[in-house]
Amino acid sequence: MNEGIVRVIQTAKDTEDRLTEKTSITFSPDSAEKEMELINIYEDLEYQEIEGFGGALTEASAVTIAKLSEAKQKEIIDAYFHPEHGIGYTLCRSHIQSCDFSLGNYAYVEEEDAELHNFNISRDHEAIIPLIQRAAALSGEDFRLFSSPWSPPSWMKTNGQMNNGGKLKPEFRQAWADMFVKYIQAYAAEGIDIWAVSVQNEAKAVQIWDSCVYTAEEEKDFVRDYLGPALEQANLSHVKVLIWDHNKERVYDRAKAAFEDEAASKYIWGICFHWYSGDHFEALSAVHDRFPDKKLFFSEGCQEGGVHLGSWNTGERYGHDIMGNLNNWMSCWTDWNIVLDEQGGPNHVGNYCDAPIIGDTQKDEVIFESSFYYIGHFSKFIRPGAKRIGSSKYTDKLETTAFRNTDGTIAVIVMNRTDNQLPFTLRCRGQLAEHSIPAHAIQTLLFQ
Question: Which residues are catalytically annotated?
């Protein structure tokens, strides 16, 4: 990258620009008179380090991809995971047993068996494991997998079913912790290392699909007394444990309950969260300010209510939330399903959603939604190991963040959700680069 040159990558509504490289701009010496329309970069201020970006490799995604022709399958996998041609996914999520985006409820131990003699992951061999292996092979050595349970087996629960909430019965806490261990070991035998687990997806929600409720105290106690020790005894202490895995409005309360208990906190790497209750970006900073050694992990978000073909709002929703989370100490990010079919499924309770890529299994077509490109402005250019650096902007009509990658490249992301083109001047190291951003657009500016 030439010194003094700023590469411009752009995605813009009502244009053909989709992660498109535009004409570069050039730095010139700063002028003492220039004080308006600035985006300042403060290189000497460093914040969190990025672990990675990615999405969920669900049974729904795996089954949808498998229904497409080999050429279309390759197009999807390359788009996400190819290190040069894709958007750089390295951190993915999967589900332990079934979730709503499975073809139905299933457990690794179907009948009561506290000793787990009948444990098996044969269902995962059908679609999920081949997809994970394919993604990992293309992504390379940076690939990491994070796994979450939506529900324990029905026989471990107070309501006797995987769906509709219920709780983990106290007498099966040890067996459930042991199932985490067996899951991690079974995947390792397939050449898949589990990098991290969360205790429970959406630990507060009673859903009509696979779900299980934990109070803050129950979740913390389960980690302290069962899961943490079980991982330790199995020599799996390197597997990171995260709590909550639900919306941001209560992220501080759940963090406080768990991290103030030293015996529990020693096992917990961080807290993960979703976006469905709104921004609450300040809540993330509150967690960081109170517990600076704990990681903040966005583990799920999607556009609900089926497929929204061609919607630009979806991409802007992603851009806004990623930007706000990054500027408040988030270090890991995983989208929900990487691919869904033309209906926004399959989903065993009709909870259809959108995904950044839609695979039309009837027409053998691959459709890239605006969200794919908006995500790519972050995931492709903010690489694992990058650190957020300081920045400021002249107007709240623009949203901005800035990172320094391990190779020294600085990536500045600028987003404009207004109906008007907006001017700005990038200011860094006593130099200025004048530019503008179209209405409803996002840009990544890259320089050394």
Answer: 202, 300
CA 354 to chain centre: 15
Q: How far apart are CA 180 and CA 374, in angstroms?
A: 34
Quote the DSSP letter at residue 64.
H
Q: Confirm if 81 and 139 have CB atoms less than 8 A apart.
A: yes
- In 3D space, the residue among 297, 323, 312 whose CA is nearest the CA of residue 411 turns out to be 323
CB burial of 65-98 (b: ≥16 within 10 Å; e: otherwise) equals bebbeeebbeebbebbbbeeebbbbbbbbbbbbb
| Exposure letters 154-174 (e unless 16+ CB within 10 A, then b) | bbbbebebbbbbbebeeebbe
- Rounded Cα distance, 335 and 55, in Å: 4
Write the CA distances from 188 to 94, 255, 326, integer angstroms.
14, 30, 31
Asked if 415 contacts 319 with a C-beta cutoff of 8 angstroms, the reply is: yes
CA dist 4 → 25, 258, 447 (Å) = 9, 48, 7
Token pair in block for residue 230: 């079980």
> What is the bridge-based pairing of β-strands 398-404 and 410-416?
antiparallel
Q: Cβ atoms within 10 A of the Cβ of 233, count?
A: 12
Helices assigned H by DSSP within 21-69: 59-66
| Residues 6 or more apart whose Cβ sits within 8 Å of residue 74 | none
- Bridge partners, residue 426, by sequence: 39, 433
User: How far does Cα 401 stand from its chain's mean position?
Assistant: 18
Q: Which two three-digit tokens encode residue 149?
A: 């349970």
Phi-psi region of 241 (alpha: psi -120 to 50; beta: other; left: phi over 0): beta
Reading the block at residue 290, the tokens are 């109170």
For residues 11 and 318, give the distance between their C-alpha atoms in angstroms, rounded to a whole number: 13
Strand partners, 443: 10, 414
448 residues of the chain, pLDDT tens digit each: 567 999 999 999 999 999 999 999 999 999 888 899 999 999 999 999 999 999 999 999 999 999 999 999 999 999 999 999 999 999 999 999 999 999 999 999 999 999 999 999 999 999 999 999 999 999 999 999 999 999 999 999 999 999 999 999 999 999 999 999 999 999 999 999 999 999 999 999 999 999 999 999 999 999 999 999 999 999 999 999 999 999 999 999 999 999 999 999 999 999 999 999 999 999 999 999 999 999 999 999 999 999 999 999 999 999 999 999 999 999 999 999 999 999 999 999 999 999 999 999 999 999 999 999 999 999 999 999 999 999 999 999 999 999 999 999 999 999 999 999 999 999 999 999 999 999 999 999 999 9
Q: Which pTM value belongs to this model?
A: 0.98
Angle (nearest 5°) at CA 319 between 317 and 321: 70
